[in-house]
Design goal:
Blueprint (H helix, E strand, L loop, with lengths): L1 H11 L1 E2 L5 E3 L5 E6 L5 H4 L3 E5 L5 H27 L4 H15 L10 H9 L7 H7 L4 H13 L10 H11 L8 H19 L10 H14 L2 H22 L27 H10 L5 H11 L5 H5 L6 E2 L6 E4 L14 E3 L3 H13 L12 H18 L12 H12 L4 H8 L15 H13 L5
Antiparallel strand pairs: 1-2, 2-3, 3-4, 5-6, 6-7
GO biological process, one term: DNA recombination
InterPro entries: DNA_brk_join_enz (IPR011010), DUF6538 (IPR046668), Integrase-like_cat_sf (IPR013762), Integrase_catalytic (IPR002104), Integrase_recombinase_N (IPR010998), Phage_Integrase (IPR050808)
GO molecular function: DNA binding
Length: about 450
Protein backbone atom coordinates (compact mmCIF):
# COMPACT_ATOMS: atom_id res chain seq x y z
CA UNK A 1 0.00 0.00 0.00
CA UNK A 2 2.84 2.39 0.86
CA UNK A 3 4.42 1.84 -2.55
CA UNK A 4 1.12 2.50 -4.32
CA UNK A 5 0.65 5.74 -2.37
CA UNK A 6 4.14 6.93 -3.36
CA UNK A 7 3.37 6.15 -7.01
CA UNK A 8 0.19 8.22 -6.86
CA UNK A 9 2.13 11.12 -5.42
CA UNK A 10 4.60 10.94 -8.28
CA UNK A 11 1.81 10.83 -10.82
CA UNK A 12 0.05 13.83 -9.37
CA UNK A 13 3.23 15.83 -9.08
CA UNK A 14 5.77 16.40 -6.33
CA UNK A 15 5.84 19.79 -4.60
CA UNK A 16 9.21 21.44 -4.16
CA UNK A 17 10.16 24.65 -2.31
CA UNK A 18 7.32 26.75 -3.78
CA UNK A 19 3.87 25.31 -3.23
CA UNK A 20 2.71 26.27 -6.74
CA UNK A 21 5.52 24.47 -8.60
CA UNK A 22 5.21 20.75 -9.31
CA UNK A 23 7.39 18.15 -10.96
CA UNK A 24 5.32 16.01 -13.30
CA UNK A 25 5.88 12.31 -13.97
CA UNK A 26 7.61 13.33 -17.22
CA UNK A 27 10.26 15.28 -15.32
CA UNK A 28 9.00 18.69 -16.52
CA UNK A 29 7.98 21.31 -13.98
CA UNK A 30 4.54 22.90 -14.08
CA UNK A 31 2.89 25.87 -12.40
CA UNK A 32 -0.29 25.43 -10.37
CA UNK A 33 -2.32 28.17 -8.71
CA UNK A 34 -5.79 28.08 -7.25
CA UNK A 35 -8.31 30.67 -8.43
CA UNK A 36 -9.92 32.55 -5.50
CA UNK A 37 -13.50 31.40 -4.89
CA UNK A 38 -14.96 34.85 -5.61
CA UNK A 39 -13.32 34.95 -9.06
CA UNK A 40 -13.93 31.40 -10.30
CA UNK A 41 -17.07 32.30 -12.21
CA UNK A 42 -15.27 35.15 -14.00
CA UNK A 43 -12.09 33.18 -14.76
CA UNK A 44 -14.05 30.06 -15.69
CA UNK A 45 -11.92 27.55 -13.75
CA UNK A 46 -10.96 26.52 -10.21
CA UNK A 47 -7.22 26.44 -10.77
CA UNK A 48 -4.56 27.42 -13.28
CA UNK A 49 -2.21 24.75 -14.61
CA UNK A 50 0.61 25.78 -16.91
CA UNK A 51 3.71 23.91 -18.06
CA UNK A 52 6.93 25.74 -17.22
CA UNK A 53 8.66 24.02 -20.14
CA UNK A 54 11.81 23.12 -18.24
CA UNK A 55 13.36 20.27 -16.24
CA UNK A 56 15.68 22.66 -14.41
CA UNK A 57 14.44 23.42 -10.89
CA UNK A 58 16.05 26.86 -10.63
CA UNK A 59 14.65 27.98 -13.98
CA UNK A 60 11.23 26.62 -13.01
CA UNK A 61 11.21 28.69 -9.82
CA UNK A 62 12.17 31.84 -11.71
CA UNK A 63 9.39 31.31 -14.26
CA UNK A 64 6.89 30.50 -11.52
CA UNK A 65 7.74 33.69 -9.67
CA UNK A 66 6.96 35.74 -12.79
CA UNK A 67 3.69 33.86 -13.31
CA UNK A 68 2.75 34.41 -9.67
CA UNK A 69 3.13 38.17 -10.09
CA UNK A 70 1.14 38.07 -13.32
CA UNK A 71 -1.83 36.18 -11.86
CA UNK A 72 -1.83 38.15 -8.60
CA UNK A 73 -2.10 41.34 -10.66
CA UNK A 74 -4.80 39.77 -12.85
CA UNK A 75 -6.86 38.80 -9.79
CA UNK A 76 -6.43 42.31 -8.37
CA UNK A 77 -7.71 43.88 -11.59
CA UNK A 78 -10.66 41.50 -11.79
CA UNK A 79 -11.68 42.34 -8.22
CA UNK A 80 -11.36 46.05 -8.96
CA UNK A 81 -13.54 45.59 -12.05
CA UNK A 82 -16.19 43.77 -10.03
CA UNK A 83 -16.16 46.54 -7.42
CA UNK A 84 -16.96 49.23 -9.99
CA UNK A 85 -20.47 50.64 -9.64
CA UNK A 86 -22.86 49.56 -12.37
CA UNK A 87 -23.59 52.27 -14.95
CA UNK A 88 -27.10 53.33 -15.92
CA UNK A 89 -26.74 51.73 -19.34
CA UNK A 90 -25.85 48.37 -17.78
CA UNK A 91 -28.77 48.62 -15.34
CA UNK A 92 -31.18 49.38 -18.18
CA UNK A 93 -29.86 46.47 -20.24
CA UNK A 94 -30.20 44.07 -17.30
CA UNK A 95 -33.78 45.28 -16.84
CA UNK A 96 -34.47 44.65 -20.53
CA UNK A 97 -33.05 41.13 -20.21
CA UNK A 98 -35.23 40.50 -17.14
CA UNK A 99 -38.42 41.55 -18.93
CA UNK A 100 -37.49 39.55 -22.03
CA UNK A 101 -36.89 36.44 -19.90
CA UNK A 102 -40.31 36.81 -18.25
CA UNK A 103 -41.99 36.70 -21.65
CA UNK A 104 -44.93 38.72 -23.02
CA UNK A 105 -47.38 40.13 -20.50
CA UNK A 106 -51.06 40.71 -21.40
CA UNK A 107 -51.50 44.35 -22.38
CA UNK A 108 -54.84 44.62 -20.60
CA UNK A 109 -53.12 43.65 -17.33
CA UNK A 110 -50.07 45.85 -17.81
CA UNK A 111 -50.71 47.85 -14.62
CA UNK A 112 -50.27 44.62 -12.64
CA UNK A 113 -46.89 44.06 -14.27
CA UNK A 114 -45.11 45.70 -11.34
CA UNK A 115 -46.10 42.88 -8.95
CA UNK A 116 -45.12 40.36 -11.61
CA UNK A 117 -41.61 41.85 -12.04
CA UNK A 118 -41.00 42.28 -8.29
CA UNK A 119 -42.13 38.74 -7.57
CA UNK A 120 -39.73 37.28 -10.10
CA UNK A 121 -36.77 39.55 -9.35
CA UNK A 122 -36.87 39.05 -5.58
CA UNK A 123 -38.24 35.46 -5.55
CA UNK A 124 -41.25 36.30 -3.39
CA UNK A 125 -39.29 38.27 -0.77
CA UNK A 126 -41.83 41.11 -0.99
CA UNK A 127 -45.61 40.72 -1.01
CA UNK A 128 -45.98 43.15 -3.89
CA UNK A 129 -44.79 46.37 -5.43
CA UNK A 130 -45.94 48.49 -2.47
CA UNK A 131 -43.99 46.33 0.00
CA UNK A 132 -40.95 46.51 -2.30
CA UNK A 133 -41.13 50.31 -2.65
CA UNK A 134 -41.24 50.82 1.10
CA UNK A 135 -38.74 48.20 2.26
CA UNK A 136 -36.28 47.36 -0.52
CA UNK A 137 -32.79 48.90 -0.19
CA UNK A 138 -32.02 51.64 -2.73
CA UNK A 139 -29.24 49.70 -4.44
CA UNK A 140 -28.46 48.68 -8.02
CA UNK A 141 -31.17 45.99 -7.96
CA UNK A 142 -33.76 48.60 -7.02
CA UNK A 143 -32.85 50.68 -10.06
CA UNK A 144 -32.87 47.63 -12.35
CA UNK A 145 -36.30 46.64 -11.04
CA UNK A 146 -37.62 50.18 -11.54
CA UNK A 147 -36.55 50.09 -15.19
CA UNK A 148 -38.01 46.60 -15.61
CA UNK A 149 -41.40 47.65 -14.21
CA UNK A 150 -41.58 50.60 -16.60
CA UNK A 151 -40.63 48.41 -19.55
CA UNK A 152 -43.13 45.69 -18.61
CA UNK A 153 -45.88 48.31 -18.36
CA UNK A 154 -45.07 49.53 -21.86
CA UNK A 155 -43.73 52.92 -20.79
CA UNK A 156 -41.38 54.75 -23.16
CA UNK A 157 -38.47 54.75 -20.73
CA UNK A 158 -34.86 55.58 -21.53
CA UNK A 159 -31.77 55.14 -19.32
CA UNK A 160 -30.27 58.20 -17.71
CA UNK A 161 -26.93 57.83 -19.48
CA UNK A 162 -23.73 59.18 -17.99
CA UNK A 163 -20.60 60.19 -19.87
CA UNK A 164 -19.06 56.76 -19.24
CA UNK A 165 -22.23 55.08 -20.49
CA UNK A 166 -21.92 57.17 -23.65
CA UNK A 167 -18.33 55.98 -24.05
CA UNK A 168 -19.54 52.38 -23.82
CA UNK A 169 -22.02 53.01 -26.65
CA UNK A 170 -19.35 54.74 -28.73
CA UNK A 171 -16.94 51.80 -28.37
CA UNK A 172 -19.66 49.30 -29.28
CA UNK A 173 -20.38 51.22 -32.46
CA UNK A 174 -16.69 51.05 -33.39
CA UNK A 175 -15.85 47.40 -32.91
CA UNK A 176 -13.92 47.46 -36.20
CA UNK A 177 -11.57 50.21 -35.02
CA UNK A 178 -8.16 49.59 -33.49
CA UNK A 179 -8.34 45.89 -34.28
CA UNK A 180 -4.54 45.50 -34.25
CA UNK A 181 -4.40 46.95 -30.71
CA UNK A 182 -7.94 47.19 -29.40
CA UNK A 183 -6.87 47.47 -25.75
CA UNK A 184 -4.83 50.61 -26.48
CA UNK A 185 -7.64 52.04 -28.61
CA UNK A 186 -10.07 51.73 -25.70
CA UNK A 187 -7.59 52.81 -23.01
CA UNK A 188 -6.67 56.01 -24.84
CA UNK A 189 -10.32 57.00 -25.08
CA UNK A 190 -11.00 56.08 -21.47
CA UNK A 191 -8.17 58.39 -20.38
CA UNK A 192 -9.65 61.26 -22.38
CA UNK A 193 -13.08 60.70 -20.81
CA UNK A 194 -11.53 60.50 -17.33
CA UNK A 195 -9.91 63.91 -17.91
CA UNK A 196 -13.26 65.36 -18.93
CA UNK A 197 -15.04 63.84 -15.92
CA UNK A 198 -12.39 65.26 -13.58
CA UNK A 199 -12.84 68.69 -15.17
CA UNK A 200 -16.64 68.54 -14.81
CA UNK A 201 -16.44 67.31 -11.23
CA UNK A 202 -18.09 63.95 -11.80
CA UNK A 203 -19.55 61.41 -14.22
CA UNK A 204 -22.45 63.62 -15.26
CA UNK A 205 -25.69 62.79 -17.03
CA UNK A 206 -25.01 63.30 -20.71
CA UNK A 207 -27.97 65.62 -21.24
CA UNK A 208 -26.85 68.00 -18.49
CA UNK A 209 -23.44 68.93 -19.91
CA UNK A 210 -23.80 72.47 -21.21
CA UNK A 211 -22.14 74.36 -24.03
CA UNK A 212 -20.52 76.61 -21.44
CA UNK A 213 -18.89 73.59 -19.76
CA UNK A 214 -17.75 72.17 -23.09
CA UNK A 215 -16.19 75.51 -24.02
CA UNK A 216 -14.48 75.65 -20.62
CA UNK A 217 -12.79 72.31 -21.34
CA UNK A 218 -11.99 73.52 -24.87
CA UNK A 219 -10.11 76.51 -23.44
CA UNK A 220 -8.18 74.20 -21.14
CA UNK A 221 -6.97 71.80 -23.86
CA UNK A 222 -6.32 74.66 -26.28
CA UNK A 223 -3.66 75.95 -23.92
CA UNK A 224 -2.32 72.58 -22.76
CA UNK A 225 -1.98 70.59 -26.00
CA UNK A 226 -0.87 70.97 -29.57
CA UNK A 227 -3.78 71.72 -31.94
CA UNK A 228 -3.78 68.22 -33.46
CA UNK A 229 -3.90 66.53 -30.03
CA UNK A 230 -6.55 68.89 -28.68
CA UNK A 231 -8.77 68.43 -31.74
CA UNK A 232 -8.59 64.63 -31.52
CA UNK A 233 -9.99 64.83 -28.00
CA UNK A 234 -12.69 67.36 -28.95
CA UNK A 235 -13.78 65.25 -31.94
CA UNK A 236 -13.91 62.20 -29.65
CA UNK A 237 -16.26 63.93 -27.21
CA UNK A 238 -18.53 65.06 -30.03
CA UNK A 239 -18.75 61.48 -31.33
CA UNK A 240 -19.38 60.09 -27.82
CA UNK A 241 -22.19 62.57 -27.14
CA UNK A 242 -23.67 61.88 -30.60
CA UNK A 243 -23.84 58.16 -29.75
CA UNK A 244 -25.72 58.89 -26.52
CA UNK A 245 -28.10 61.38 -28.14
CA UNK A 246 -29.04 58.80 -30.77
CA UNK A 247 -29.70 56.18 -28.10
CA UNK A 248 -31.81 58.54 -26.00
CA UNK A 249 -33.47 60.13 -29.05
CA UNK A 250 -32.57 63.53 -27.65
CA UNK A 251 -33.40 66.55 -29.77
CA UNK A 252 -30.53 68.60 -28.42
CA UNK A 253 -27.56 70.36 -29.94
CA UNK A 254 -24.27 68.64 -29.20
CA UNK A 255 -22.28 70.97 -26.86
CA UNK A 256 -19.04 70.00 -28.66
CA UNK A 257 -20.34 71.02 -32.08
CA UNK A 258 -17.90 73.31 -33.90
CA UNK A 259 -15.27 73.42 -31.14
CA UNK A 260 -11.93 73.19 -32.89
CA UNK A 261 -8.46 74.52 -32.15
CA UNK A 262 -7.14 76.34 -35.20
CA UNK A 263 -3.56 75.66 -36.17
CA UNK A 264 -1.59 78.65 -37.43
CA UNK A 265 1.34 76.52 -38.61
CA UNK A 266 0.87 75.26 -42.20
CA UNK A 267 1.11 71.48 -42.61
CA UNK A 268 4.06 71.87 -44.96
CA UNK A 269 6.06 73.48 -42.13
CA UNK A 270 5.43 70.66 -39.63
CA UNK A 271 7.22 67.92 -41.54
CA UNK A 272 10.12 68.25 -43.90
CA UNK A 273 11.88 65.98 -46.38
CA UNK A 274 15.41 64.68 -45.97
CA UNK A 275 18.09 66.17 -48.15
CA UNK A 276 20.00 63.65 -50.26
CA UNK A 277 22.92 63.88 -47.84
CA UNK A 278 20.67 63.29 -44.81
CA UNK A 279 18.89 60.42 -46.51
CA UNK A 280 22.17 58.69 -47.32
CA UNK A 281 23.33 59.17 -43.72
CA UNK A 282 20.17 57.52 -42.37
CA UNK A 283 20.47 54.57 -44.77
CA UNK A 284 24.12 54.13 -43.79
CA UNK A 285 23.43 53.92 -40.03
CA UNK A 286 20.78 51.23 -40.57
CA UNK A 287 23.69 48.81 -40.95
CA UNK A 288 24.15 49.12 -37.16
CA UNK A 289 20.56 48.09 -36.36
CA UNK A 290 19.29 44.62 -35.49
CA UNK A 291 18.38 42.51 -38.52
CA UNK A 292 14.61 43.09 -38.41
CA UNK A 293 14.97 46.82 -37.77
CA UNK A 294 17.44 47.25 -40.62
CA UNK A 295 15.11 45.46 -43.03
CA UNK A 296 11.99 47.32 -41.87
CA UNK A 297 13.87 50.61 -42.09
CA UNK A 298 15.16 50.02 -45.62
CA UNK A 299 11.82 48.85 -47.01
CA UNK A 300 9.78 51.66 -45.44
CA UNK A 301 12.34 54.35 -46.35
CA UNK A 302 12.84 53.31 -49.97
CA UNK A 303 9.18 52.69 -50.80
CA UNK A 304 7.69 55.64 -48.90
CA UNK A 305 5.32 53.24 -47.14
CA UNK A 306 4.08 53.88 -43.62
CA UNK A 307 6.10 52.10 -40.96
CA UNK A 308 3.12 50.08 -39.71
CA UNK A 309 2.40 48.90 -43.26
CA UNK A 310 5.89 47.39 -43.50
CA UNK A 311 6.45 46.11 -39.94
CA UNK A 312 3.26 44.04 -40.26
CA UNK A 313 4.18 42.32 -43.55
CA UNK A 314 4.00 38.54 -43.83
CA UNK A 315 5.84 36.27 -46.25
CA UNK A 316 2.52 35.72 -48.01
CA UNK A 317 2.28 39.47 -48.75
CA UNK A 318 5.48 39.39 -50.80
CA UNK A 319 5.84 37.93 -54.30
CA UNK A 320 9.52 37.71 -55.23
CA UNK A 321 9.16 35.06 -57.93
CA UNK A 322 7.31 37.21 -60.46
CA UNK A 323 9.12 38.99 -63.28
CA UNK A 324 8.64 42.20 -61.31
CA UNK A 325 8.73 41.48 -57.54
CA UNK A 326 6.01 43.14 -55.48
CA UNK A 327 4.49 43.44 -52.04
CA UNK A 328 0.84 44.00 -51.15
CA UNK A 329 -0.45 46.34 -48.46
CA UNK A 330 -3.76 44.91 -47.25
CA UNK A 331 -5.19 44.01 -43.81
CA UNK A 332 -3.57 40.69 -42.96
CA UNK A 333 -4.40 39.81 -39.35
CA UNK A 334 -1.28 41.51 -37.97
CA UNK A 335 -2.15 45.08 -38.80
CA UNK A 336 -4.86 47.12 -40.44
CA UNK A 337 -4.40 49.81 -43.10
CA UNK A 338 -5.30 53.47 -42.82
CA UNK A 339 -8.02 53.59 -45.49
CA UNK A 340 -9.15 52.06 -48.77
CA UNK A 341 -6.64 54.06 -50.84
CA UNK A 342 -3.84 52.60 -48.71
CA UNK A 343 -4.64 49.09 -49.97
CA UNK A 344 -2.19 48.77 -52.83
CA UNK A 345 0.63 46.92 -54.55
CA UNK A 346 4.19 48.27 -54.40
CA UNK A 347 7.14 47.22 -56.55
CA UNK A 348 10.25 47.57 -54.32
CA UNK A 349 13.64 48.04 -55.93
CA UNK A 350 17.30 48.17 -54.94
CA UNK A 351 18.15 47.91 -51.23
CA UNK A 352 14.48 47.55 -50.25
CA UNK A 353 14.10 44.54 -52.54
CA UNK A 354 17.33 43.03 -51.19
CA UNK A 355 16.02 43.41 -47.62
CA UNK A 356 12.77 41.64 -48.54
CA UNK A 357 14.66 38.78 -50.19
CA UNK A 358 16.77 38.32 -47.04
CA UNK A 359 13.68 38.43 -44.83
CA UNK A 360 11.82 35.84 -46.88
CA UNK A 361 14.78 33.46 -46.79
CA UNK A 362 14.86 33.80 -42.99
CA UNK A 363 11.07 33.60 -42.63
CA UNK A 364 9.49 31.76 -45.58
CA UNK A 365 6.08 31.79 -43.85
CA UNK A 366 4.39 34.06 -41.33
CA UNK A 367 5.67 37.50 -40.24
CA UNK A 368 8.67 38.78 -42.18
CA UNK A 369 9.85 40.88 -39.23
CA UNK A 370 8.87 38.89 -36.10
CA UNK A 371 10.37 41.37 -33.64
CA UNK A 372 7.84 44.01 -34.74
CA UNK A 373 4.94 41.80 -35.86
CA UNK A 374 2.31 42.80 -33.31
CA UNK A 375 0.40 45.53 -35.08
CA UNK A 376 0.52 49.08 -33.79
CA UNK A 377 2.66 48.09 -30.79
CA UNK A 378 5.34 46.64 -33.05
CA UNK A 379 5.30 49.68 -35.32
CA UNK A 380 5.63 51.95 -32.27
CA UNK A 381 8.68 50.03 -31.04
CA UNK A 382 10.25 50.12 -34.50
CA UNK A 383 9.57 53.85 -34.78
CA UNK A 384 11.18 54.55 -31.40
CA UNK A 385 14.29 52.55 -32.30
CA UNK A 386 14.61 54.15 -35.74
CA UNK A 387 14.13 57.65 -34.33
CA UNK A 388 16.85 56.99 -31.77
CA UNK A 389 19.23 56.03 -34.58
CA UNK A 390 18.17 59.00 -36.68
CA UNK A 391 18.93 61.44 -33.84
CA UNK A 392 22.00 59.84 -32.25
CA UNK A 393 23.70 57.97 -35.10
CA UNK A 394 22.76 60.03 -38.16
CA UNK A 395 22.95 63.21 -36.02
CA UNK A 396 19.74 64.71 -37.45
CA UNK A 397 18.36 67.03 -34.76
CA UNK A 398 15.74 69.01 -36.72
CA UNK A 399 12.40 68.22 -35.02
CA UNK A 400 10.59 68.51 -38.36
CA UNK A 401 12.54 65.49 -39.58
CA UNK A 402 11.15 62.19 -38.29
CA UNK A 403 10.95 58.69 -39.74
CA UNK A 404 7.66 59.57 -41.41
CA UNK A 405 9.64 62.19 -43.37
CA UNK A 406 10.62 59.37 -45.73
CA UNK A 407 7.11 59.55 -47.21
CA UNK A 408 7.64 63.24 -47.96
CA UNK A 409 11.13 62.50 -49.27
CA UNK A 410 9.96 59.79 -51.68
CA UNK A 411 7.13 62.07 -52.81
CA UNK A 412 9.62 64.87 -53.57
CA UNK A 413 11.99 62.48 -55.35
CA UNK A 414 9.17 61.20 -57.57
CA UNK A 415 8.00 64.72 -58.33
CA UNK A 416 11.55 65.80 -59.22
CA UNK A 417 11.97 62.74 -61.45
CA UNK A 418 8.83 63.60 -63.40
CA UNK A 419 6.82 60.58 -62.21
CA UNK A 420 3.16 61.10 -63.20
CA UNK A 421 0.89 62.06 -60.26
CA UNK A 422 -1.29 58.95 -60.65
CA UNK A 423 1.77 56.71 -60.22
CA UNK A 424 2.88 58.75 -57.21
CA UNK A 425 -0.53 58.25 -55.61
CA UNK A 426 -0.47 54.54 -56.35
CA UNK A 427 2.96 54.04 -54.77
CA UNK A 428 2.22 56.10 -51.65
CA UNK A 429 -1.39 55.00 -51.18
CA UNK A 430 -2.87 58.46 -51.63
CA UNK A 431 -6.34 59.12 -52.98
CA UNK A 432 -6.28 60.09 -56.63
CA UNK A 433 -7.98 59.65 -59.97
CA UNK A 434 -6.57 58.15 -63.11
CA UNK A 435 -5.26 54.80 -64.23
CA UNK A 436 -3.58 54.04 -60.90
CA UNK A 437 -6.89 52.69 -59.62
CA UNK A 438 -6.68 49.90 -62.22
CA UNK A 439 -3.13 48.68 -61.55
CA UNK A 440 -2.82 45.02 -60.62
CA UNK A 441 -0.17 42.34 -60.54
CA UNK A 442 0.21 42.23 -64.32
CA UNK A 443 2.50 44.24 -66.61
CA UNK A 444 1.48 47.54 -64.97
CA UNK A 445 3.57 46.61 -61.92
CA UNK A 446 6.62 47.24 -64.10
CA UNK A 447 5.57 50.88 -64.40
CA UNK A 448 5.60 51.19 -60.61
CA UNK A 449 9.05 49.61 -60.36
CA UNK A 450 10.49 51.83 -63.09
CA UNK A 451 8.99 54.95 -61.50
CA UNK A 452 10.41 54.16 -58.06
CA UNK A 453 13.81 53.21 -59.44
CA UNK A 454 14.02 56.45 -61.41
CA UNK A 455 13.00 58.52 -58.38
CA UNK A 456 15.48 56.87 -55.99
CA UNK A 457 18.44 57.04 -58.36
CA UNK A 458 19.88 60.34 -56.97
CA UNK A 459 19.62 59.00 -53.41
CA UNK A 460 21.30 55.62 -53.74
CA UNK A 461 24.06 56.31 -56.26
Amino acid sequence: MAVQRRERRKTRGMFISMTNVQLTKFGVYRYRKGVPADLREVVGKREILKSLGTKDQRMALLKAEALDKHYDELFRKLRAEQAKPMGELEKFEKASELVAALGPYPHELRFEAADWVVGDKYSGKYSGVSDWEHNAPRDENFRITSYAIALAQGDNVRPRLTIKDALTLYLRDRQDKGSDNRAKFEKDRERSVDRLIAHLGGNRFIGEVSRHEARSYFEKVRKAYKPETANKELYLFKAIFDAAYRELELEKRNPWEGLRVHDNVPDRDKRDSFTLEQGRAVIAVLAQANVDLRRVGLVSALTGARLKEISGLTAEDVDLEAETPSLTIYPNGIRTVKNKASQRVIAPVGLALDALREAKVSHPTGPLFPRYADGAKGATRASAALMKMLRSKANIKDERLVWHSWRHTVKDLMRNAGVPPDLQNRILGHTGDGVSANYGRGPDIKLLADALEKALEPLVI
